Amino acid sequence: MTREPAFYLRLLRTELAAFRTTLDGDLDAPVTHCAPWTLRDLAGHLGSGNLWVVTATAEGRGDHHPPAPEGDAALRAWYEESAAALLAALDTDPATPAWTFRAPHTVGFWQRRRAQETLIHRWDAQHALGAAQPPGAEPAADGIAEVFEVMAPRMIDRGLAPVPERAVRLVADDLGREWTYGPGEPVATLTGPAGQLLLLLWGRAADSAPGLEWSGDRAAGRRVLAGPLTP
Q1: Burial category of 134 from C-beta neighbours within 10 Å (exposed 0-12, middle 13-18, buried 19 and up)
Q2: Do residue 122 and residue 194 come from a single domain?
């Protein structure tokens, strides 16, 4: 289930700006969860991804991966330009056809995907600088749903993760919402703030992180979430 376009565009705008702020920090800082990348490498990845999606929506193709420019000042300016181009490209009817790597093949797919991608990498960048701010509860809830609806099935289709044999339930206790991944009745439940649950699914937090609590068959639940569910 997706949200209204305004939700994603607002989130994307906020996260793109927050990521840009980190580029005033140490660009040689290592990005723990994207090793061996530095913050400079992460900026190149995100900026290139922005322009990849601009081409995917404007030209209906997914083969454009422009490299980042040399030099830190040029990198910062290029990232800003890529962010502006992405926001302009996605500020349209979500039903507009576009190239995507998974259905639906519309701009709406990218509105959600880029908002969530930028949120995770904003956290990565802030974490690299020692000042990570957790995802907001509502954006995180949408991100959890996107993992189960889009990213995990894609990992299975690509042969990078097994089809789950059992089910696990995630409960966001700050929102009173829950999700079940896998077939049948859940063998275990993991409860905690939505932001922590999202970071867990993206490999940015352990299931023993503060605020997370298991009930049921913890070992079986861990095996389901081991996936990997995300790239």
Answers
A1: middle
A2: no
Task: Supply the range of the domain harboring residue 109.
Answer: 5-133
The counts of H helices and E strands in the chain are: 8, 4
CATH number, position 153 = 3.30.1050.10
Please check whether residue 114 is in contact with residue 82, taking contact to mean a CB–CB distance below 8 angstroms: no
Q: Is 124 helix (H, G, I), strand (E, B) or coil?
A: helix
C-alpha span between 137 and 134 (Å, rounded)? 9
Tens digit of pLDDT for each residue in 206-223?
999 989 999 999 999 999
Residues 78 and 14 in one domain: yes
Residues 6+ apart with CB under 8 A from 226: none
Per-residue pLDDT tens over the stretch 128-171: 999 999 999 999 999 999 999 999 999 999 999 999 999 999 99
Asked if the bond preceding 69 is cis, omega within 30° of 0, the reply is no
Q: Same domain, yes or no, for 69 and 166?
A: no
How deeply is 228 buried, as exposed, middle or buried, from its count of CB atoms within 10 A (0-12, 13-18, 19+)?
middle
Task: Please state, in angstroms and rounded to a whole number, the distance separating the CA atoms of residues 215 and 126.
Answer: 31
- One domain for residues 145 and 167: yes
